[in-house]
């Protein structure tokens, strides 16, 4: 059941179109990640949904109620929407307890009990309630910010790059903890991030934004395996994109003869293979495999990055990350094989 509907949303700042006809549908209780490079419009969209900015055109509807259009704007404090910002935005002069309960009526009899329940919910010790934000780690501050947002029992939660200031290990731990809280509470959530891995791990639905509009919306697996174009493919992770001649469900390309998803496409087109699909095998006589040579090897513990250049009149160069149990040496020769099918990208040359 759809809960949030954004239809034809436009917003201009001078000559720049921050949002250029954005459409988005979010199901009740689901998690959507909006991902894209800096300046693509994702934070502007979040501000529109929250009520901090007014659209030039289009509508925003939550649970059947129009929150904003070009003529009317429901004030932010009446929307029932929670927001957790990048830095948490905690009040430094207030205790954790007062930060969590900031939006609650001070005469509310159950205020203290609710604050205690909320800090339990986000996985922090009650002893922290008396502390000031400066006495907490970055991850703890973000959990407090989440508890504060949950205190008003929002029907929709907006997360604006809330984990970006945390180091890698803490970032993943905090994201998992926040996800568990939101799932348990059944709150519809939208996460804005520029981190592709974060978007794929967090969401039921991923929306890729570029230049003020969505280039593709779908499930994490679908959008990673079947991106609509090369730009989307590369934004969602490492991608090997190469030209190919397609016929009868196969593509002839620099990596040999490779099966493609679906059998209807024919002619010249670009295909995409993810690096994890490339099998690097010991060099030997096998006419079915493409061969190449290893160079530019960078060891990093559990894995290493290596450049492999294929043996061909027009060599194809790719960068792969391989497990370090079988480290190649500079100049080693290898065989290459593609596991699974390649994805045919849309664009010039495709039919």
Automatic annotation (TrEMBL):
CDD domains: ABC_Carb_Solutes_like. Residues 4-236 form the ABC transporter domain. It comes from the Bacteria. Belongs to the ABC transporter superfamily. Keywords: ATP-binding, Cell membrane, Ion transport, Iron, Iron transport, Membrane, Nucleotide-binding, Transport. GO terms for molecular function: ATP binding. The lineage of its organism: Bacteria, Pseudomonadati, Pseudomonadota, Alphaproteobacteria, Hyphomicrobiales. This is Iron(III) transport system ATP-binding protein. It holds the Pfam family ABC_tran.
């Amino acid at each position: 059941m759809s809960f949030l509907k954004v239809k034809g949303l436009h917003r201009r700042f001078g000559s720049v179109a921050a949002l250029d006809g954005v459409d988005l549908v979010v199901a009740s209780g689901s998690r959507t990640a909006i991902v894209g490079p800096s300046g693509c419009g994702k934070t502007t969209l979040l501000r529109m949904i929250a009520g901090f900015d007014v659209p030039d055109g289009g509508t925003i509807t939550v649970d059947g109620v129009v929150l904003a259009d070009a003529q009317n704007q429901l004030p932010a404090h009446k929307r029932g929407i929670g927001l957790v910002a990048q830095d948490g935005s905690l009040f430094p002069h207030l205790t954790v307890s007062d930060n969590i309960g900031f939006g609650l009526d001070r005469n509310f009899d159950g205020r203290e009990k609710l604050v205690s329940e909320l800090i339990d919910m986000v996985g922090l010790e009650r002893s922290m309630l008396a502390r000031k934000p400066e006495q907490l780690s970055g991850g703890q501050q973000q959990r407090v910010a989440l508890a504060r947002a949950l205190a008003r029992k929002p029907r929709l939660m907006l997360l604006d790059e809330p984990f970006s200031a945390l180091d890698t290990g803490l970032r993943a731990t905090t994201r998992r903890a926040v996800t568990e809280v939101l799932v348990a509470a059944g709150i519809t959530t939208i996460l804005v991030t520029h981190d592709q891995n974060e978007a794929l791990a967090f969401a039921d639905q991923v929306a890729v934004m570029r230049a003020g509009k969505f280039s593709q919306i779908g499930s994490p697996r679908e959008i990673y395996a079947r991106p609509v174009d090369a730009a989307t493919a590369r934004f969602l992770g490492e991608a090997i994109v190469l030209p190919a001649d397609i016929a009868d469900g196969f593509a002839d390309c620099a990596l040999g003869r490779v099966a493609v998803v679906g059998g209807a496409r024919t002619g010249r087109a670009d295909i995409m293979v993810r690096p994890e699909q490339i099998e690097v095998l010991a060099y030997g006589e096998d006419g079915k495999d493409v061969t190449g040579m290893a160079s530019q090897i960078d060891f990093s513990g559990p894995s290493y990055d290596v450049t492999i250049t294929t043996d061909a009149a027009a060599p194809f160069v790719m960068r792969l990350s391989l497990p370090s149990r079988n480290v190649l040496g500079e100049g080693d020769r290898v065989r290459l094989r593609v596991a699974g099918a390649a994805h045919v990208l849309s664009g010039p040359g495709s039919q």
